Amino acid sequence: MNEGFKATLKSSETEDWLDLHVIRPFCYYLAVFFNKFDIHPNTVTIWSMIIGAASAIFFGCGSFYYSGTWGLMMNIIAIVLLMFADILDCTDGQLARLSGKKSRLGRILDGVAGFAWFIPIYHVLVYRFYLHHDLEFGWLGIEDTPENTLIATAVVYALGLISGIAGLAGQQRMADYYIQVHLFFLKGEKGAELDNSERQQEIYDQMTPETHSFAERYFQKSYIDYTKKQEGITPQFQRLMHKLRDKFGASENMPESVRKDFHDASLPVIFWNGLLTFNFRSFWLFLFCLIDIPIMNFVWEIVGMGLLAWYVNHRHESFCKRIADGLD
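Now predict its structure.
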């Protein structure tokens, strides 16, 4: 890796193999290209949101089993669009670090991008089930009547809500937080974007209609709730941070032994945490859509990804408790 490329990464430790060796190098050249034309990182983020949301149109088509080659092509187009949206979402951060155009709004938009993609996609997958459900009804021995279709679709919609809110949203919010926590102990306060709800509330309280647009205030207000939820699922980490602040004050005063202990415990967890992010998650979405059982993506996110998220959270909280107890 050349120095210019490495400077656009948060850290190689928080990237999985595919990102580090394939996606991030490609995004770096895109970032260099966008920087030459003075394109703002937030503009790239918005492009990502639009393209990712547009993929929902093509995910709504039945694949080969229901629609033959045409359906298969529509699903492949959807996959390509969503992958390109993710590439742009990776590019915006590298562009921000390359150009120096980092902003609080950019950080918030980056967290919103995934939701902008998957909210329409998940709704379209429910509609797709409403239109195409022969496989599922055949396996379960359900008669394909209008009444049964409506009942089954309502059940699938409930699964989609659980999958989207407790699954996708909660898991990715936690995964993003653990990445920033790891960077905080690896690089210090300036090398991470470890936000807290109290500080975000202070920023919001200083925003007025005269100084900030409605959109900026809306996103900031939403971000307060985002950070509160991150803090709510990490009580042992919050306890550890309070003890560190009380005992050592500023983060730069933290003993290297504590920093190293945390880093060494966090590093293996970051590997599993990475499976909660886009690459591994989207693989299952693509697979289930291509084999014409997209509702299995909801089940997988609730059960499979849910167990993985529990493991990551449990393991992280456990070593945070151990380190915090050692500070007594």
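The longest helix spans residues 146-187.
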